User: What shape does this take?
Amino acid sequence: MNLFTCGKHRLAPQTVKIMKLTVFLLTAAFLQLSATGRAQKVSYSGKNVSLTTVFSSIEKQTGYVFFYNNKDMKHTHPLSIDIRDVSLQEALNTCLKDQPLSYVIKGNTIFIRARDIPAPAGITETVVASNLINVKGRVTNEQAQPMADVTVLIKGSNLGTKTDAQGYFSLSNIEAKATLEFSYIGYMTVTYVVTAGSKDIFITMQPKAGALAEIVTIGYGTQKRSDVTGAVSTLKGSELASAPTPSAADALQGRVSGVMVQKSSGAPSGADVTIRIRGANSLTYGNDPLVIIDGIQGGNLSSLNPNDVESVEVLKDASSLSIYGSRGANGVVLVTTKSGKTPKPKVSLSSYVSFDKVRKTLPALNAQDYATLVNEARNENGLDSLFTKAEINALGNGTNWQNEIFKNGLSQNHTLSVGGLNNGISYFFSGSLLGRDGVVLNTKYNQYNFRSNIKIQASNSISFGLNAFYSYDITKNGDYESAIASALQWSPTKPVYDSNGMYTQPGGGVGPVSLYNPVGYAKEIVNDQNNTALNLAPNVEFKLTNDLKFNSQFVYRLNTNFAGYFDNQVVNNGPASNVNGSVTQGRDVYLQNTNVLTYTKKIKDHDFKITGVYEIFKDQYRGSTINASGIPVGLGYNGIAFGTTFTPVPNASVLNTAMSSFVGRLNYGFKNKYLFSFSDRYDGASQLADGHKHENFSAVSVGWNLTEENFMQGIRTVVPELKLRASYGHVGNAAVPAYSSQLLFYPGVSANGSPTLNIKQLANPNLKWEKTAETNIGVDGKLLNRRVDFSIEYYSKLTNDLLMWQTVPAALGVSSVLTNVGSVSNKGIDASIGGTVVSNGKFRWYTNLTINYNQNKILQLDGLSDTLYYSSKADYPGLAGSFVQMKGQPMGTFLGYKFAGVWKQSEVSTAALYGAKPGDAKYVDVNKDGKIDKNDIVVVGNAQPKYVFGWNNNLSYKQIEINIFWQGVSGNQIYNQNRIRREAYTSDAFPTSPVIKDHYTVSNQNTDVPAFSGFEYLNESRWVENGSYIRLKNISVAYNFGNDLLRKTKVISAAKIYASAANLVTVTHYTGFDPEASVGKDATAAGVDRSLYPSQKSFLIGLNVTF
Amino acid sequence: MRTTKFIHIAIIFSCFCLLSSCVKLKEDLTGQPTTDKFFKTTADFNSFITGAYSPIITLFGTDYPYVAGAGAEDVHTNVVRWKGFEQVNINSVSNPNEITDQLWNAHYSSISICNNTLQVISTSALPLKELTPFAGEAKFLRALNYFYLVRWFGQIPILTEANQQNAGTEPQSSVADIYKSIVADLQFAENNLPDTQADKSKPTKWTAKALLAKVYLAMAGFPLNQTSNYALARDKASEVISGAAYTLNTEPNGFFNLWLLSKQQTNNEFIFTLHADRFNGTGGWVNRAVRPWDHGEQGWGDWESDKRFLAEFPAGDNSRVNGTFYLTMIDGTSWQNTDYAQPYVGKLRDGGTITGGYAGPPIGNTADGFYCLLRYSDVLLIYAEAANQAEGTPSANAYNAINAVRARAGLQPLSGLSQAAFDKAVLDERNWEFAFECNRWFDLCRKHILSSTMGSWYPGSTIDDHNYLLPKPTDQLAIMKGVQQNTGY
Assistant: This one.
């Protein structure tokens, strides 16, 4: 486009020149707000000089720019003046005294206009000061997210500006009827005709198809979105930041189809987040996706600050994953962090403060009711009353233990970053601190992060970069797990402290005997941890020819961890000799070298891209633990050396692993229409058995851009983009620890001082990779003038040679051996659909729904048996064998008796047939053999959800933005073990739940709670609950300050304040603390809820400012 | 330009080659006792076989063996889900695996270490003479484990160093064959173990002989009923008695003192004892499980004695009553006034000074402890019973043997009894002498009197032959294809 001419609007060259300057200055003024002081004193001396000459001189002296129409100058006459050190105003007044002109100063511009002379009719190009207006507005993308750096140009000129970080722009003194053009790479240009009334202009830009479309990061490279043939979902940093979360792991929840994120505990460290991409494949190791942050494999999303993220790509199918070979089976999350882009340093501050409270407490009996029921239960079972009437009356409400250990928490998060690009040097530094004071007494977490991304373009062909990251976190907790467990079971009749100010002790016939005072656990036990992570990743890129690029990255990663534990024996009134502690230290050094050679060639309609990679990893972990007792109580764990008794066998370990891989990939495209890709990776890993260390993983995929076909031309407005994709390939899983194929021992010492050696693990000379074959068929498109976008994919994964701790006869000396047996399938559909529902001027609503349906099924276990029992931490007393893997079922099956209520008096004779009496629990006689025994134990639930969904809404009205985000799962069950000791009358503890009030008696037969004297199995369906939920994960309202206001500050270029609430509404039938709660994951205690840190409701207020 | 390009590419490829040579995929188990680095000295063999004790130490430090044998008169439990074990109605236990798994796995784990030891010995370059004692120890322990397994579960596979790897498919053996291999192992052990051991927890040849006597006695009873073994049991017990390696602890308060942790290594009555150390990962919690929760005891009340058992217990001079039971709580309350109103177990309550000792309340959940599996009075009573049965009438020596045990308990000596009456007297004496030592249940089974004895103890119970064995753990049945569930389960 020729900027100098445009239709009938033809500007005189002088105006154009001045406008050019003005554009620069406007841009400078609006984008940078650099209020540097200028010389305000003007001097000029001359005779018969033209007005324009004087203007030029004033421009030079002051830095102000004149803005005038040449036509107006025709009516001026030369002048003679002599001014010295006068103000600008005085100088202008002097110059224009006898001229038919007046002036207006706006910003740095001096507008000269004809004085009192109306513009002649028909001359539109006359710049008339009274017709100049100021406009401002905002540009957002199709997802209602602000777009920065959009060029806003006054059509027919090169006057204009760019939008700021929040999408705002403003233009001063433009022609009232000007046409504005909004352009951005990859988006369709939008034109907008300014009218006298347009002050606030809201523009939504739509991405355009074709060459400049979105660039997607894929394994070892990038690709145009339109060329992608695999299943790759992208999430922009701005979207991650739309709901404030402490870590990127939380931020992924519900936002990417096919990705399930479960926050299984509410502990402040936020580490208990499980991420599953298209279901779990492995029964034993590694269902966690591989996280790669800026090319550094094995990243940690929990310590990733969402504010540092430029984009996240989730690779889901074999064609995009097989390039990661043996590390790809669980999907890959590729994170690109921010880099500097603007010449002027961009400084951003993002802060929030969050007020957190326990989302829900569980109902509990008060002391009077509890004591009354204890008496009732004892009497019913032939024992004496424990409490007298007078004692009960004196009890009152007693202690609500949950209130004693739960409190309101306060969290804060501050991030400060600066980025820029100057003279070929791009830099981005970001520092953040996160402090979370948990909702359980004495739980605290602090995290400090620093990131530095530097890239130096040394010449046209060579660039160097360094990505550095440092993270330090500190967790300070009491024994919150025991505190929660015991708060749910302790008797409300006991006070927190006894008359001596000591913690009350268990016993007395009420409460559990094996758990101590909840407050004592929380306050007295010291459980500190801290972790550091340091990443240093220098890289170099050579452009060997125009087509051939070589990139090499070295990674040094150091993780250290420390854990200190101290039990001062106050909680259990123990002797000084029992005061004990432990100190654990670990260090992990990880080295990675990735070398990528990329060859790109276009020959007529044929596009080729060939990628070759050679990559190595080396990892060494060293750790040690010291335990001691008899530590002087005032010293804490740091005084461990002063202990009197040391566990004779210290734990010290060293683990080495190494891997080396060759990778090749070919991408081919014909006319952007037909796409093909093939990749192969040859991996070798040390931890597999000799002879099985190497394996090949390959994948093939095809794509068809239907939009490019002629027959689609007719419906292009309705279907502007449509692509079909299909892929098939293999990926592996070798997430096994070092020495997994080897015979290992563990040392010990007998009570009489003899050393002992026990087998820890048997060798398996056949240990190899777990292999997953995956088929993916997908269709993506955009509809209705790109107002709606969608992507639907079907996948089918089959994992064979599962790495499993195959239970072996105890006679082999170990309970299980790591073996490649079994097979698991995951089939499902990932879909995401989004669109702009409303977009009229000031109000916009973009909505996006992601849904994943996954069917997980165990096809084969160890071949010996169709049910795999394992003992795990889910095996609560009486529940051993209730948590199993079964052939034909999804992972995480619950077994038990089918609870069918309570035998009533009217059923006395039927009950007797089963050896039961009224008041006993009634069970379904599944095999109809006339008795209830272990053959009636059946599947009573499963931990795997069928559907996982997220529904995100971005609304904006003028300067207000609203984000409403719902998220949920359905089709799973939760084994609520907390209820067992709270609702069942056992010898372990008297129940504390009000449910027990409804226990069966002759006068209260219409109940499902067995009698105190009733018989009940504990491994029963009574504790299994529907785990479906839908929750308002986030709702936030933000206000963006307008530019006018910000300009006055001269420093701030964008500012936003927001208020937000997390977990405000949860719709669920689940009665526990939280339906996301889970003791374990996948094949180990998934879906079991017991004594977990409860989730929170959080209210945040936050501020984002860009300088 | 072209040359530089080639130089670049050349550099890259030489980098590749340099790098690839520095990645070694061969694992070096640095610092690990791999077979090529270990078993170089007898000390290594000693540490390896010592590991075979850990599984059974841990087992006896828990409730499991006592709960499994709770069907005898001495044991009573308040735990609802275990009631079926107590009332000899195991089919009503919702989850017998909770108990049976532990028994099965602990014994077989221990067996596996014995087998591995024997395997390594057979291929070791060390002089056989130095290794034979370890072979003896391995065979003794293996026999002990099979002796428990065969009595709990009946037919099971005999897994030795020869066939252990086929555990998943080995068929179960007949009870007779299992006993045969137990006897063979013990005969090897008695001939190859040393006369004495510095470590009190290790077996000597006398330990092997004492156990062999007990095994013969068991073989003479149900289900084998090989009565010829009475004579063998008598002779083996006689060997131990005349060997004079052990004595009855007859000092004042002798019976009580047996159960003090501080004295466990000094008394000469214990023949084979497991020693648990909470600092070494073998700590147990049985000391806490047997105490009541109230009156300062701070126990869990998982299991205790039965007041009917105490009522039948002969008082004598009360020395045995005081050592066996715990009848007055820390705060002075009598057992009748505790919540469970049952007498408590004295023999297992000492968890060491660290957890309150015998007299104080327990503090931690795991404690030190010792579990006596074989002691001299057992040998005396084995002799008495076996001699009487083998000879048809109680001999003077038989009377001497039982009366020595009775004398310590302050009971009058027996005399002039018929064979049957003497047999009954010995059996009763065993019931009292070895209460809470996992003895009575096996005696009831061995004598095949479960139904006649316990049927009246738990009126309304229906006891048949299937009750003599526990159900085999279902998870092990699933993976051991040669094993079948016991009849009736």
